[in-house]
Structure to design on (363 residues):
């Protein structure tokens, strides 16, 4: 029993090291390419968005893959993080002059806001399952987007001014700062985000998700996923663990949103950014990377973000090739024959490695 447990822990440690090592290796390669001038400006501009999409995919996998609940409102939590973090940074721009400290606090605040909203939304929503849960979370995502689009927020010497009509109704002094301008979004954020911070945030996300997954709480969450009735019968608090996974997933999405907001000059709560289109895109990353497969989510997010951008020169053929890549990844991950082939290849590699080790020991 103890030997089996040790082997399991060793396998988990190896997989974890491979996942962290993959991220760190990509970071080192990208840094070398940037400093040697071997990276295009287009690719440099994609580095932070790649981190954003990877964090979103990993955090959604906690809800979809580990908890086993289909959520289509993940972009809504990112939207909360975007606007909370951006408002904080703009308001504190002259108060906290150290950019890294201000950005760190903005990430904490955005994650906290999204986590709290996720907890409050999860109390009634997580009583539903399957398609019903997906529809309700999708509706929540659209509500958040539309609420943000009617908010007008400004700041002058008298403090913050809020309205849902227009900027003129704020009644601010001349020279005041316009923070949120309704459908026009928010602008003037400090450009504090960079690739290094994005990688650090991705590593923190991996640390949180992987450690939660392999902890006692994680085993309880997976027990709920596998069989809710059996889990409840052995005394597992269903509501507690569902809310835990959902809230942590929402908080990580909020932190990713802060990273996204501080990488571009203007953010609008549009459908493509924070509506159902984005939620579906993140879900595609999770499904194609393998539900419950954290490393696969990162790889899928990177590939499916890079492919359309790298194929822009092909114009009308770009979406065709993108669709072929989607189909290919789906077949590779979910086709029984492909799974059988992958398992056979892994078994052969292990057999060859064990044979070499045996020969070395014999020598």
């Amino acid at each position: 029993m103890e030997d089996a447990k040790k082997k399991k822990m060793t396998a988990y440690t190896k997989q974890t090291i491979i996942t962290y090592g993959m991220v760190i290796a990509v970071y080192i390669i990208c840094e070398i390419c940037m400093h040697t001038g071997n990276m295009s400006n287009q690719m440099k501009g994609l580095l932070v968005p790649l981190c954003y999409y990877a964090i979103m995919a990993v955090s959604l996998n906690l809800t979809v893959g580990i908890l086993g609940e289909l959520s289509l409102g993940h972009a809504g939590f990112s939207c909360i993080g975007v606007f909370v973090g951006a408002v904080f940074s703009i308001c504190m721009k002259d108060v906290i002059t150290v950019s890294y400290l201000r950005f760190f606090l903005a990430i904490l605040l955005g994650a906290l806001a999204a986590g709290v909203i996720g907890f409050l939304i999860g109390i009634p929503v997580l009583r539903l399952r399957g398609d019903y849960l997906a529809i309700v979370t999708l509706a929540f995502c659209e509500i958040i987007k539309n609420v943000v689009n009617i908010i007008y927020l400004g700041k002058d010497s008298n403090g913050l001014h809020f309205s849902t009509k227009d900027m003129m109704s704020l009644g601010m002094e001349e020279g005041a700062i316009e923070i949120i301008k309704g459908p026009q979004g928010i602008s003037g954020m400090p450009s504090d985000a960079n690739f290094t911070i994005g990688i650090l945030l991705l590593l923190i996300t991996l640390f949180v998700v992987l450690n939660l997954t392999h902890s006692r709480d994680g085993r309880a969450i997976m027990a709920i996923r596998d069989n809710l009735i059996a889990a409840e019968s052995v005394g597992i608090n269903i509501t507690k663990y569902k809310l835990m996974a959902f809230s942590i997933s929402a908080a990580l999405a909020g932190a990713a949103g802060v990273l996204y907001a501080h990488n571009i000059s203007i953010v609008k709560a549009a459908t493509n950014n924070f509506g159902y289109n984005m939620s579906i895109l993140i879900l595609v990353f999770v499904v194609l990377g393998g539900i419950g497969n954290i490393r696969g989510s990162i790889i899928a997010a990177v590939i499916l973000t890079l492919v359309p951008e790298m194929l822009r020169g092909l114009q009308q053929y770009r979406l065709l090739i993108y669709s072929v890549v989607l189909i290919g990844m789906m077949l590779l991950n979910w086709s029984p024959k492909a799974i059988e082939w992958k398992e056979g290849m892994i078994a052969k590699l292990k057999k060859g490695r064990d044979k070499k080790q045996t020969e070395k020991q014999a020598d």
